[in-house]
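Subject: Sanity check before I submit

Could someone independently write out the structure tokens for this chain? I want to compare against mine line by line before I put it in a report. The sequence has 288 residues.
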Amino acid sequence: MRIDLHAHSTASDGTDTPAELVLGAAAAGLDVVALTDHDTVGGYAEAIAAAPRGLTVVTGMELSCRLDGIGMHLLAYLFDPEEPELARERELVRDDRTPRAQAMIGKLRALGVDVTWEQVSRIAGSGSVGRPHIATALVELGVVPTVSDAFTRDWLADGGRAYAEKHELDPFEAVRLVKAAGGVTVFAHPAAVKRGRCVPETAIADLAAAGLDGIEVDHMDHDADTRARLRALAGELDLLVTGSSDYHGSRKTCRLGEYTTDPEVYGEITRRATGAFPVPGTGGAAGA
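---
Independent answer below. Compare away.
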């Protein structure tokens, strides 16, 4: 089995619709793909309806968290999307994305960049607006050559000149909420230093003690030495190890299935989950 547990659609900051994402996953030879849009479950229905036979869809979400001033992302899998407490918190995070984006646009304009809310809103479409949409606007304007080049201290990285904070969850509370909704939690790209400061490994140990299920080890932002160190840490803390593409369509260079999760780990995730179950494709609107 080939299993990719981290992918984004136009419901947040990917460039593929949920339907295009699942069809692309099947075309890439995947058996399982997780839809993990930022702070939203808005793409679920379309992805499930379009999933072709032979592909299983894992419903998930990537929650925005912050610990001691450091941003981090928590992947949540197979939780009950209707559980009211978790639903309320994810909506608070999502709703704060628009004023945060507008604040960042204001900072960019003060720096002499002729970016507008209308431009960023067009790029985001119906998705949950975020920094990648603003980064795409900077590429369109010729300010930076690629989206990744916008995530520096000069521009949009944490603490950067155009950075603005938004409502984010305490990760310990996020773990509690997801677990209470029957879900499974995995710390996304925990050592992606190119994105900015990372939480210390002592914090990962504390999260493990609080119920964290796993860490995403095999990821494009982790080099070989980092992956080896994180895999050893996971062994010490009895955490699951996942691998994922963190696919965003054309917005990033990673490909679906570029990194994958061991089938035994996937099986353990499904065994631990009680809020929802993986959904086998039925052929979808496009057929199989």
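---
OP: Matches mine. For the report I'm noting this point. The longest strand covers residues 56-67.
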